């Protein structure tokens, strides 16, 4: 358990749908068009206010640039593309960058208080496009900022006096905008990537829980089938035995009857085993703490390290989400243990505490504070892990499912290896296994 959980179940739910071969849209064209309408409205408002105040600027070229943005939006409205590819998205953002930069150049350059809007296209790109495309647009933004500073057409007030910044202040504005390109683009790209990773990991969690629930449904079906098939198999066995006794003078037919009876015995044995595997059906909503921990640990009991369960506690909710989450934690412990994994469970006051510890090398100190984040993969060399490989979702899935049940998790070293402590308020997880199930549902007439 020394490394963040990475096991075959990590990738549940992450495979793309067979019918989805095209990549998702980076951003809808309708969104870009709506943002441009807002930009056009703001630009026209600024032009009208400046005109009213008597500020001098080249009105013809400025209005022509605004008309170009208006024409682009009308064209996209009349000829909407079916999908927005990354190439088309970056082309539209580059158009906005050039249009805003040209307006800034014609209206005072960096002395224009609206020069900050040059950063808008690269910020949008950082939230929708990949790092390479964002860097390309960021370099283009720095270039356009520099051109707007060097080739700026100065504004004039009502008296005709030029409105210019002092050289040192203009340089400061240029540096601030360049820093803004790097900061806003980098920050937006990082936040968007983390949100996307978390969203994908939550989807994997939902798929894992759905799989666990399907397996539990299957267990109930198997138990019911084993019960229902018992009577006809007993009848077949009885009749086959009587036929065998009556066919002493027909050795060939008697042997067939004996084979039929033996096959019925075999089917009965198989169904008894399946019935035991499916005995915990959907009607068993509560179970002793030890039974729940044994259920969670059972798939990993014979994988090498000894799994020891020391649990004395109340009856608790038998929830597929809780069992699956504990199973992930136990698998992580078994994967990295040297020889022994200890699972302890007990109630302390109004808390229920489950501790899972192993004798492996422990969690990497550099990753200890981030354990439970999605896609936190191991730093061990693959040769040291054998065939063990994963996507870093095991602990994230376990942590998410357990926190939804009201638990709090703590990860630490000192078991002598790694230790996971899961703590519930007793009122959130305890259940009375002997409580009445309630009224049976009404059957349709």
UniProtKB/TrEMBL annotation:
The subcellular localization recorded is:
Cell membrane
Disordered: where is this region?
A: 1-22
Indicate how the chain sits in the lipid bilayer.
Answer: Multi-pass membrane protein
The enzyme's E.C. designation: 2.7.13.3
Q: Which residues form the Histidine kinase domain?
A: 224-428
Q: Where is the signal peptide?
A: none
Q: Which Gene3D superfamilies match?
A: 1.10.287.130, Histidine kinase-like ATPase, C-terminal domain
Reactions catalysed, as given in the entry:
ATP + protein L-histidine = ADP + protein N-phospho-L-histidine
Which PROSITE patterns does the record match to this protein? HIS_KIN (PS50109)
**Which Pfam families does this chain map to?**
HATPase_c (PF02518), HisKA (PF00512)
Q: TM spans, by residue?
A: 37-56, 62-79, 100-122, 134-155, 167-188
The name of this protein is: histidine kinase
